[in-house]
């Protein structure tokens, strides 16, 4: 397993794009900045997982702004997990 860590938070501008799947290659998630570029070959399910993780993170960041909203979010999340198990 390879792990690569790049701190993009210091970059002023980044460019993010998705190059569509071609006949012999998967879609490519590309992140470009002053440091260079990162290209991830991914399928649609993996893109969905990345998108969902980002959505959840941003949603939690907003909910954390007010404690009442965080409590509501936690209760909704717990309820959704219980329904999925049932």
Structural class designation: alpha+beta
**End-to-end distance, in Å?**
35 Å
Instruction: Tell me, briefly, the overall form.
Output: extended
Beta-strand content = 15-25%
Question: What about the largest sheet?
Answer: 3 strands, antiparallel
- The radius of gyration computed from the alpha-carbon positions, rounded to a whole number of angstroms, is 17 Å
Low-confidence stretches: none
List the domain count as a whole number.
Answer: 2
Q: Which sequence of strands runs across the widest sheet? A: 1-2-3
Number of helices: 2
Which range best describes the helical content: under 10%, 10-25%, 25-40%, 40-55%, 55-70% or over 70%? 40-55%
User: H/E order of the elements?
Assistant: EEEHH
Question: Would you kindly provide a brief summary of this structure?
Answer:
By secondary structure, the protein is α+β, with helices and mostly antiparallel strands. Helix content is 45%, strand content 22%.
Describe this structure in words.
- With 86 residues, this protein is an alpha+beta fold.
- It folds into two domains: 1-42, no CATH class; 44-86.
- It has two helices and three strands; from the N terminus they run βββαα.
- Strands 1-2-3 form a three-stranded antiparallel sheet.
- A hairpin with a 7-residue loop joins strand 1 and strand 2 (27-33).
- The longest helix is centred in the middle third of the chain and has 20 residues, at 44-63.
- The mean pLDDT is 85.
What labels would you give this structure?
86 residues; alpha+beta; 2 domains; 3-stranded antiparallel β-sheet; 2 helices; 3 strands; extended
């Amino acid at each position: 397993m390879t792990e690569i860590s790049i701190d993009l938070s210091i970059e002023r501008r980044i460019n993010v794009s998705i190059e569509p799947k071609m006949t012999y290659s998967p879609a490519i998630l590309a992140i470009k900045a002053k440091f260079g570029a990162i290209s991830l070959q991914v399928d649609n399910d993996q893109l969905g997982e990345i998108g969902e993780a980002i959505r959840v993170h941003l949603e939690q960041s907003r909910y954390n702004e007010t404690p009442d909203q965080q409590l509501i979010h936690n209760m909704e999340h717990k309820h959704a997990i219980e329904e999925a198990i049932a």
